[in-house]
Structures are given as structure tokens and as C-alpha cells.
TrEMBL record:
Residue span, Aminoacyl-transfer RNA synthetases class-II family profile domain: 150-386
Record note on quaternary structure: Homodimer.
Protein species of origin: Pedobacter aquae
Protein name, entry field: Glycine--tRNA ligase
Residues binding ATP: 222-224, 304-305, 348-351
Reactions performed catalytically: tRNA(Gly) + glycine + ATP = glycyl-tRNA(Gly) + AMP + diphosphate
Length: 486
């Protein structure tokens, strides 16, 4: 990892805590590994990302509706989905450090190091060998590759490895009054199954016709042994998923459509297109006939942010078999009953949150010949910013706070606003820059005379004088969802 990338990632993590975006969960009790809390600004940014996804997915598509299914579901659902028997990661232990690692992640890290060192031939060869071993579920081969490429434990520095074994990632618990007499249930490891088991309910109650989609945002839980890279891989996380039901035989055109549509969604908020790439799966799940990841170049390398999968009719067919209920749609256009095929789009909300912070974070040197100066700024798209504007009285006297409060009360009905009268105006500007507030509205003595204020723009730091009566329209135009939804 390049030093500047390493420093960037550390600075983003530090910034996230300092300004109330993300905290370590249970921090006063020394924390809970791979579990994080979203602070006051993190919750706002997260909700805005959810709103952006929901509007783009549900509001803008007449044939897509949203649901909110329960986290607890009948245990047979996870048997039908394959999670009870097949939701495993290949794990390997280092005998000296007693630390456990995912075998594929150790190999992926080695591939990244080969790429950074310009050893592309070695990287491609190892990628191919790893993909083949994963596809064949050849655990001894994975261990052999770790040994062949002299991969050491990051903690002990030794190559004293155990055999590779499979480890199921689902959390289980008991439902009922007494643990010994209750049924075992699972915390859902994904949100998709809640959509599949409600397919008929939604289709019939909503009078939906193929093709149509069901969207959902919700928590999922995976007992990740190797949880790392801040909020990139957590045990409790949030997904934004949409399952799109199509007529068999049309799935590849819809797969192509959603692949293109979802990348546009990512780029519309100003993320750098050069940091994105598609990565086609070489190892397809047994039920899929196409799968691709949208990957973003994080400071620690390209990682998946969203997956688009053509899942065929596997999910509905499995639930039809295990439940004994028909999961079919009668298509009047072709006068035929069939189990629909599914195109899935699944994005990790926490990963996109981290992506958004990294993409928008900048430390700017504003020094001049006369003085040293700098600022940390989040160049968040105005529609995503936690606060849309901040109202700042120039001083805490002469009626300026009263005038500022009057403006604040007028604007907060439509926009999430910040109010700050502590410290110098320059320090207050810097704080709003650091949390991504697009505009600062400064109330000064002239405001009392002619009812005008100064708007300062975060990115350019330019200032303009405007009438108070124009503020609502100015802010509304700049933070509108219309700027990114199309």
C-alpha cells in the first residue's frame, strides 16, 4: 500500500470520529470488534444515501415497489436458500499467532502486492489459480497456494499454517421463552430472502406485472472472522437490494440494463469514474448465469461495492419446493405460467458510505506568501450533505443572533440546517467545510439594514450577497434531488 494511500485512509477514519460520523461501538468498554455506531452526522449522511437509492430505485420506476421484511424468518428459509449448508468461508489459522484468516483474502492481498510491485504476470497467475481452487472448492489447493507464494501471518510473521477449513457465517439464536425448548433461528445474512418469500404477497396485492422489482433496505448479520478495514467489512451491516423479476429468456437484456443503470447511479453524485471498474465473476454461484461486481478503488485497492447477479429461477423454485406453495406468475401476454427469473442489484450501504467519505475528503493547502493556512473539506454532493446550510451570525451581539435565528427558523422547515455562533467566523467556516456543509449564510450588520446576507460556497470559498427572501429558492435549487436523479 502506498504511503499516501495509507495516510489518506487513516485520516478519513480519524476525521469520521472527530466530526461525529462514525464511532467504535461500545467504545467506553474498549469496543466491540468489527461493529460500529453512526454518529449524529453519520446518521444524516447515511439516511441521505438511503433516500437517494430509494428515490432512484422506487420513486423513479413505476414497476418497482419497496418493502421492509423482518430480520427473523422461518429457519427453513435458510435451508431452502442454501445458507445452512453452503454459506461458508475458507478459513486458515496461524499456529504461532493463533489468528484466523480467510484464505482467499490472504491470496487477494498477495495479488495486490504483486500488482503494486509491477509483477503483473505473477498477479494474473495467482488470480487464475485461486479462482480455479475456489470454483472447485479445493481447500488443500488454497493452502498450497498460500505456501507456494510464501504468505506470512501479518501478526507473527511466520508461515506456520493449519489446513484450510470451511466456516459458516450465520449467527444463530433461540426463539421462545426457554432456550432449551425453543427453535433455532438465524439473524438474516442477507435481505434478499425476505423479498423472495414475499414475491406472491407483493405481486397479488400490488397487481404487479412481469417485469417488476421489489426493493428493500435493511440490516444483515454475518459472523465475519476476519473483519477489517474500518466499516468495509462488519458483522452488522446494511444492504440496499432490489430483486427484479423477469420472463425467462429476457434475463440477459435486463442484466445489461441494470449493470449500466447502477453504475450511472454511482457516478451521478460526483464520484470519480476512473476509480470504478466492472469485475466479472469467474466463479459463478451454481444458480447464477451471470454476475458482475461494481468495484471502487479504495486506498487499500479495488473492492466490491455493489453486485449485479442474474440468479435464474433458483430462489423462487427453492422456496416453491421447500414451502409447497406455487411461486409462479401467469403471463397473459404469452398465456403461460412460469417461475420468474431474477436480476439482483445489491449494494452495501456502509461500503458506499465509506466510498463517499473517501471520495469527498480533501486536505487543502491554502497557504500564501504571507501566511500558512489549510483546511479539511468534504466535497459531498449537496443532496447528500448532512446539513444543507449553516447560519452564522457574525457576532453574538447587536441583534445579529436574533436576526440569524429568524432566518434559521424560516429555513429549517424545508432543510436540515446548522446554527453556530461560537468562535471566529473563519473557524466556523472551517468546521462547516470539514463536515461537508455546502453553504454558509453569514448574518452581519448590513443584514439588519437591507435584509441581505452573505452566502459562502464550500468548494470555491466564493461569497455573494443575496436577499434573505431569495435564500429558500437558492438552497432548494442547489440541493435538489433533481440534480442527480434522471
Amino acid at each position: 500500500m502506498a504511503k499516501n494511500n495509507d495516510e489518506l485512509f487513516k485520516n478519513v477514519i480519524s476525521h469520521a470520529k472527530e466530526y461525529g460520523f462514525v464511532f467504535q461501538s461500545s467504545e467506553i468498554y474498549d469496543g466491540l470488534s468489527a461493529v460500529y455506531d453512526y454518529g449524529q452526522l453519520g446518521a444524516e449522511l447515511k439516511n441521505n444515501i438511503k433516500t437517494y437509492w430509494w428515490k432512484a430505485m422506487v420513486q423513479m420506476n413505476e414497476n418497482i415497489v419497496g418493502i421492509d421484511s423482518a430480520i427473523f424468518m422461518h429457519p427453513k428459509i435458510w435451508k431452502a436458500s442454501g445458507h445452512v449448508d453452503g454459506f461458508n468461508d475458507p478459513m486458515i489459522d496461524n499456529k504461532d499467532s493463533k489468528k484466523r484468516y480467510r484464505a482467499d483474502q490472504l491470496l487477494e492481498d498477495k495479488i495486490s502486492r504483486y500488482e503494486k510491485d509491477g509483477k503483473t504476470d505473477k498477479a494474473e497467475k495467482l488470480q487464475h489459480d485461486m479462482d480455479e481452487a475456489l470454483k472447485a472448492e479445493d481447500l488443500p489447493r488454497l493452502k498450497a497456494l498460500i505456501e507456494e507464494h510464501e504468505i506470512v501471518c501479518p501478526v507473527s510473521g511466520t508461515r506456520n499454517w493449519t489446513d484450510v477449513r470451511q466456516f459458516n457465517l450465520m449467527f444463530s439464536t433461540q426463539m421462545g421463552a426457554m432456550a432449551d425448548g425453543s427453535d433455532e433461528v438465524y439473524l438474516r445474512p442477507e435481505t434478499a430472502q425476505g423479498i423472495f418469500v414475499n414475491f406472491l404477497n407483493v405481486q397479488k396485492s400490488g397487481r404487479m406485472k412481469i417485469p417488476f422489482g421489489i426493493a428493500q433496505i435493511g440490516k444483515a448479520f454475518r459472523n465475519e472472522v476476519i473483519a477489517r478495514q474500518f466499516i468495509m467489512r462488519m458483522r452488522e451491516f446494511e444492504q440496499m437490494e432490489m430483486q427484479f423479476f423477469v420472463r425467462p429468456g429476457t434475463e440477459m437484456e435486463w442484466y445489461k440494463h441494470w449493470k449500466e443503470t447502477r453504475l450511472k447511479w454511482h457516478l451521478a453524485v460526483g464520484t470519480n469514474p476512473d476509480k470504478y471498474r466492472f469485475h466479472d465473476h469467474t466463479k459463478l454461484a451454481h444458480y447464477a448465469n451471470a454476475a458482475v461486481d461494481i468495484e471502487f478503488e479504495f486506498p487499500f485497492g479495488f473492492k466490491e461495492v455493489e453486485g449485479i447477479h442474474s440468479r435464474t429461477d433458483f430462489d423462487l423454485s427453492q422456496h416453491q419446493e421447500f414451502s409447497g406453495k406455487k411461486m409462479q406468475f401467469f403471463d397473459p401476454e404469452i398465456n403461460q405460467n412460469y417461475v420468474p427469473y431474477v436480476i439482483e442489484t445489491s449494494i452495501g450501504l456502509d461500503r458506499f458510505f465509506l466510498l463517499t467519505l473517501i471520495n469527498s475528503f480533501e486536505e487543502q493547502d491554502l497557504s500564501t506568501a504571507d501566511k500558512q493556512d489549510s483546511r479539511s473539506v468534504l466535497h459531498l454532493h449537496p443532496a447528500l450533505a448532512p446539513y444543507k446550510a449553516a447560519v452564522l451570525p457574525l457576532t453574538k451581539k447587536d441583534g445579529l443572533p436574533e436576526k440569524a435565528r429568524e432566518i434559521m427558523n424560516r429555513l429549517k422547515l424545508d432543510f436540515n440546517m446548522a446554527y453556530d455562533e461560537k468562535d471566529s467566523i473563519g473557524k466556523r467556516y472551517r468546521r462547516q467545510d470539514a463536515i461537508g456543509t455546502p453553504f454558509c449564510i453569514t448574518v452581519d450588520h448590513q443584514s439588519l439594514e437591507d435584509n441581505t446576507v452573505t452566502i459562502r460556497h464550500r468548494d470555491s470559498m466564493e461569497q455573494e450577497r443575496v436577499a434573505v427572501d431569495e435564500l429558500e429558492n437558492i438552497i432548494a435549487k442547489l440541493v435538489s434531488w433533481k440534480n442527480i436523479l434522471n
